[in-house]
Amino acid sequence: MSEPVILAIANQKGGVGKTTTAVNLGAALARKGKKTLIIDSDPQGNASTGLGIAADEREANLYAVLAGTTEASAAIRPTSQADLYILPANQDLAAMEIELVDAEARQFSFRDRLKDAAQDFDVVLIDCPPALGLLTLNGLAWADRVLVPLQAEFFALEGLAFLLRTLDRVKRGSNASLQLLGVVLTMYDGRNRLAQQVESDVRTHLRGRVFKTKIPRNVRLSEAPSHAQPIFDYDERSSGALAYAALSDEIATSLGL
């Protein structure tokens, strides 16, 4: 098997659809026959919950792997969907932000602890927490590409500019091969004039690096995690499912999958 594609899904702003994108993009790629691993690196553990791993079933988790008490291969769990796996997280992971502060080569902990297990997969998606702390830095220092979910709202461009500066610093300091795969507009309402204006501005500023597919505001997308299912299992005919299927087509083409 060739080297996996490591894709970090990152935005320092919360509530923009990172976890929704990680879960449903992962499911869409798995449906294409790509063996896909989602790494839940957010202490809230929402990706784990959304894929059916209950909080009391996560003793083998990302924190334990980073702490060296569990092997990554033992912590990775299958999901209800073929070819889709998850390395779960729980609240313990919040302590890792503090524990990594004094660690040698702290930004490479993900890479060092996870790279061997990752070899079994075609794609690894890292669901980064909503902050530019050490957990996100670890994801960026290991990733080949970064996907940025962006909600079309007033402060979107300001936050995006800050994130792009951070990516540039990581590229110069820790990961020279890191590249922006692109921006995907999420929770998009085409009837909203502000959303239309933000889309126009983002596409102008990042010409060629904004995906054609937009993820709409969709009740079914919001409901699916409470049923511990990707959108394709919950309602494959919903606008959200159709959008993530289209996004996966664009991303697969971009990555040569």
Please work out how many helical segments DSSP would assign.
12
How many β strands by DSSP?
7
Mean pLDDT: 93
- Using the coordinates shown, work out and report the CATH topology: Rossmann fold
CATH superfamily: P-loop containing nucleotide triphosphate hydrolases
Helix amount: 40-55%
Write out the strand line-up for the largest beta sheet, numbering strands in chain order: 3-4-2-5-1-6-7
Low-pLDDT stretches are: none
**Structural class determined from secondary elements:** alpha/beta
Per CATH, the class reads Alpha Beta
CATH A-level architecture: 3-Layer(aba) Sandwich
Number of domains: 1
Radius of gyration: 17 Å
**Distance, first to last CA:** 13 Å
The string of secondary-structure elements, in order, is EHEHHHEEHHEHEHEHHHH
Largest sheet: 7 strands, mixed
